[in-house]
Structures are given as structure tokens and as C-alpha cells.
Amino acid sequence: MPIKTDARLTPKKLVPKIERLFDLSGRKILSIEKTWKPAQGTPVFTVKGRYSARGWTEWTQGFQYGSAVLQFDATGDERFLEIGRRGTVERMAGHVSHIGVHDHGFNNVSTYGNLLRLMREGRLPADPREQEFHELALKISGAVQAARWTRLADGTGFIHSFNGPHSLFVDTIRSCRALAVAHRLGHVLMGEQDAKISLLHRLLDHASNTARYSVYYGEGRDAYDLRGRTTHEAVFNTVSGVFRCPNSQQGYSPFSTWTRGLAWAICGFAEQLEFLRDAVTPEAPEFQAAGRSLAEVERLFRKAAMATADFHLENCCADGVPMWDTGAPNLHRLPAGYLQRRSDPGNAWEPVDSSAAAIAAQGLIRLGNYLGAGKRTGANTGLRDTKAAARYRLAGLKIAETLFSEPYLSVDSRHQGLLLHSVYHRPNGWDYIAPGQRVPNGESSMWGDYHARELALLILREARGEPYLTFYGCCGGSGADGV
Q1: CATH architecture of the domain covering 11-473
Q2: What whole-number distance in Å separates Cα of residue 200 and Cα of residue 82?
Q3: pLDDT at res. 181
Q4: DSSP state at residue 472
Q5: Coil, strand, or helix at residue 236?
């Protein structure tokens, strides 16, 4: 395992770094709020340290306002609560009803979901009308996301990406949060002839097909079947409903691993394991109607989560940061044994991706917590694995320690980004490359900054002994209730 962990590293030891991060974070958020003009669209990534837009899809606005809400959560500074609230009310409604994207779990759970969670935690004053507003937005968002459905030959299906009905993106595993929250709030998707379509069923189908087609297990599926690697896109014949081939939009090739896609899988499956443990019971009528056992689903999700987590740890640098793709064409030009050394974001040949590291770190910590927790009343059917739990947690904390320090933490007051050395779309050439350099570095992305904050908040809450941070905390906290 190239990553070098420290058994003495704990959440409490990271608190000074996290407090510094949130101090810098507040300044970045205020800078963006002061200079960004909504008519420009949504801020996506930085160019020369200033946020710019890229009209591919508007998938990052929830991270913009969600970051302000996380800042309030960590610091109690009500300036950021106001930014997050106002931005959510004024700018996010279109994302709730957006039928053309697979990004609802990113945009809407990060805004409406975080605000509702804070209200349920008692961090915001109880306001029935505001609570109903957030709940309605989350219900609609989950149903709209679930309606973006491609049916497969075996009767299951998946939420298709904005590329079209043939396309399953590995990213979308984390958008399953929208379906989970809407289901917990008691909502269903209404179809033709008033058919009631279970959001839990669609979540389970989509996540199961992601585990089946987007993740590899070293079982001889093809000549490039390495355990834990992922493909960005799985392509299906929409007439027959049969899988055709792997593909990649943002990675180097279908047969290498785009590491941010890998990170989405680690984090997404870990979160869904927590959701199944805390929020679903085997006896729940809707789960029984899904035609599968909770133990069966948990085994599949656990297999996918551990395989992808292990692959990240085997293919990142010693400090936990990966290159942007494991098959990038100029990796052979890097110094021999580069994975056994600290990552070098300034190298001349291939960029690292700090945003992939931030997303993966959260997934590793959550997976470690899940594996170490054992059973909870009426819920978890998985087995404890304390050795793996400790390994994943320490790896996640090590990555956090790396990212919350220079050269990844942005300390320049003129730079609007928080997490440096993020990569957006290398094949399309969208990332800024400074004069005299061959590859992008030194820039930030809205999703990288958001997930750095979310990772920091997850660790900070543990260090403070505060409630555990979950996406489904917005709909009743944890504890199996059969919803």
C-alpha cells in the first residue's frame, strides 16, 4: 500500500489544521460572494485563482451555497448561514426540477438538505414553514432524479447521465442521496396510470448496477479487470437493455481509472452502507417488496466499497493524493517509484487531482466507521472488520492531513479557491495551464472546495463529540425506523 499512515493521527490532532482551513474558507466564500455575478452562470473552477464558469451542466451551484452552510455549521458565523439560505431560495429552485441531469444529490442535498439537517439538529430555530419548504424541495428532487430511468433486460435499471439513456456514470452513485432522502421523507415517484414507484427500489437498482457494471473485481470480466478499478461510463443498448462496453468521458480511457470517478464510488457506496444500516430495516414493507434481502444488498455494496477503497490506496502517492488517471499517457515519465513518494503537483508530466483525494478521504473514513461499528439494533447485517476499519480510517485521516496543509491548502488571499491542484476535464483541455508549464496545477474547483469542507466538518464533529454527519440526518437523524 503506497500510502503511509500514522497510527497516532486522530481527529483531535487535526483540529488546529481544520480551524485554519475554515478561517481561510470564510475569506474565500466572502470573496466569491462579493465578486461573482449570477448572470455569469455558476462558478465551476478557477483560472489564475479566480472562479470562472463552464456551461457544460450547472452541477456546481449547490456546492457554492452548500459551502456557505457548511461554513456556518463549523464556525457558527451567521453571515454564512445568510449566504447559504439566500442563495438556496433565490438560485436553487431550477435545480430541484431539472430533468436533464444526474446531479440532484450534489446540488440539492448540499443546500436544502444541509439546511434541513441543521434545523433538525436544533442549530437553527424551529420553523414549520421553512422545514416544509426544504422537505418539499428534497421530495421533488428525489423523484425527478429517479424519473431519469433506463430499464434493463433483467427488469432493473439505472439513472442515466446527461449523456443520454444509454449512459450510466459512476458519479451518480452519490446522487442516490437524493432518492434516499426523498424516500425517508415518505415520498414516491408517481408514474403512468398513477403507478407508485418506490424511490428505495430505484436507489437499490441503480447502486447495484453501478456495483455490477462500473466496478471491477479481478474476476476475469475483461483483459483489464483489476480489482477495484472503475470505469467512468457504462454503455448500454437501450433497445435490448444489455450492457455493451465501458467508456470514459473525463478519464484517459475506458480501460484505465479516472480517479475522481473512483472516489465517487468509494464515498457513494460507503454512504449508502451507512444509510442501509441506520435508516432501513429488513422488515420494512418497501424493502421486502424489492425482492432482495438487506444482507444481499449490503454484501454487494460492501464488496464494491472495499474493492474501490483498496484500489485507491494501492494507486495513490504516499500522502494519499492520486494522479488524475491511473493510465495517463505520461506517467512513465515520472520518477521511478513516484507512488512511494509524496505527490508532486508541480511535476511536468501529469496532474494530480486533489478533489479526488478529498472525496476519497471522506469515503474511507465512513467505510472505516461502518466496518468498525458492528450491528445496530434491527439494521446492520454486515460483519465487523476492525483491522480493515482501522486501515481505512487512518488512510482517510492521512489524506485530510495532506490536503489541509500546503501545498494543497490555498493560503493566498488573492486566490478564491480553497483546495489547490484540482482537475476538471483533462481530455477536453478545460483546465488552465500557466505559461511555461505542460500540465494544469495550482487551480481549484467548486466540488473540490466543497468536499474539503465536508471532510473537515466530518472530522471536526467527531473531535468535538458532536452528532455524526450524515446526508440523511436531514430527515430524522440515525437509527433504524423502518421508513
Answers
A1: Alpha/alpha barrel (1.50)
A2: 33
A3: 98
A4: G
A5: strand
| 234, 223 Cβ separation under 8 angstroms | no
pLDDT band with cut points at 50, 70 and 90 for residue 55 = confident
**Residue (of 233, 235, 237) closest to 253 by Cα position:** 233
Tens of pLDDT along 191-238? Answer: 999 999 999 999 999 999 999 999 999 999 999 999 999 999 999 999
Is the pLDDT score of 482 beyond 90?
no
d(CA 467, CA 311): 30
How far, in Å, CA of 320 to CA of 401, rounded?
10
Q: Please tell me the predicted confidence (pLDDT) of residue 483.
A: 30
- Its pTM stands at 0.96
The yes-or-no verdict on residue 282 having pLDDT over 80 is no
Residue 43, beta-bridge partner list: 53
Look up residue 346 and give its DSSP letter.
T
Residue 451 has pLDDT above 80, yes or no: yes
Question: Is residue 1 within 8 Å of residue 311, measured between CB atoms?
Answer: no
CA distances to 359, 362, 377, 400, 408 from 454, in Å: 9, 8, 28, 11, 16
State the Cα–Cα distance between residues 212 and 299, nearest whole angstrom: 12
Enumerate the β-bridge partners of residue 245. 235
Measure the CA–CA gap between 77 and 257, rounded to whole angstroms: 40
Give residue 374's pLDDT: 57
Q: Quick check: helix, strand or coil at residue 256?
A: coil
Spell out the domain ranges in the chain: 11-473
Contact 160, 102 (CB under 8 A): yes
What is the reported pLDDT for 481? 33
Work out the end-to-end distance of the chain between its first and last CA atoms, rounded to an integer number of angstroms: 40
